[in-house]
């Protein structure tokens, strides 16, 4: 494995590979939009989606909700072999957007008096975070959720990356069932990056531990709690958790990856199937643009959390590497567009899937999209900018994975 490839395994960025990718044979013309609202504002959005496909991504699906008005757009293909168009209701792996669901469950538990955000990890998971300078008695639940724990990101471990994240080895091991405790043990081989609470560093391990705390407090599986507390009450009928199944529910397109190989001519693989346990609470949920918009509207407007817990969720720490107006709360990201719109949301990157969902502060508007290819180019447009500012810009569509969704396959 080359030095550069090893470095990519360490930073764990899915979708941030070569600086330029030539337009390939599968770049299909844009599909006709399916819209309930034909508001002019979405013209730039559709153009940005088309440009993303022209840059080499197989297909894009997006949905915007503005009050009662719904706009749905697609571009490109959901299947490179058959040429079938990307579907407006496609399900996809949302990767680290899962973290918002997990943080919401823990905040609900706090509201019910079952735990406190300032409880230590040691209180709920005795002995699990220890060794090599790691000390669960010094790390709080809050610090897991806002990534200020200092705990090493397990997907950045070179050996883990070489086996589960890179090239042919990923293909050989993508059906393996991995226990969450295994992911924690990988992280515990490394010293923490800093003293808890003194800095910020995105780590998937934080949310593996958060999922284990949910299970310890509830006496149920993490999946059960998410389903009973969020998925069922909000009627998210297209949202599911795969457990250790490798399969995708229908309807869904195929998912494509270059397997973190940085050559512009790297072979594109169909990676639709992979064992869901390799994501778990840090990135396993499957959903749609419509369900994500519904969830984030309910969340930001106080339908899911009491005021005190929603305020805690929206209390951010600085994430300067992501931009001057960007901060990370408890499983949610605050950002601002070039035209001044403040947004709350999260991004997610996993093999074959790059996704993003945002909502305005007042909950009046939501927007989400998914790419069924996990690489990006410098010339790819910023779809969020196009939607909210009418400006297709030139930010890679995977920019939200630079830490927000990053630091690993389940970014």
UniProtKB/TrEMBL annotation:
EC main class here is hydrolase
Gene3D superfamilies registered for this protein in UniProt = DD-peptidase/beta-lactamase superfamily
Residues in Beta-lactamase-related domain copies: 47-353
The Enzyme Commission number assigned here is: 3.-.-.-
Query: Which SUPFAM superfamilies does the protein's record reference?
Result: beta-lactamase/transpeptidase-like
- Full protein name: Serine hydrolase domain-containing protein
Q: Which GO terms describe its molecular function?
A: hydrolase activity
Output the lineage of the source organism.
Bacteria, Bacillati, Actinomycetota, Actinomycetes, Kitasatosporales
Disordered: region residues: 382-411
Q: Which UniProt keywords apply?
A: Hydrolase, Signal
* Superkingdom of source: Bacteria
Q: Which Pfam families match?
A: Beta-lactamase
Q: What InterPro entries does the database record attribute to this sequence?
A: AmpC-like, Beta-lactam-related, Beta-lactam/transpept-like
Signal peptide (residue range): 1-27
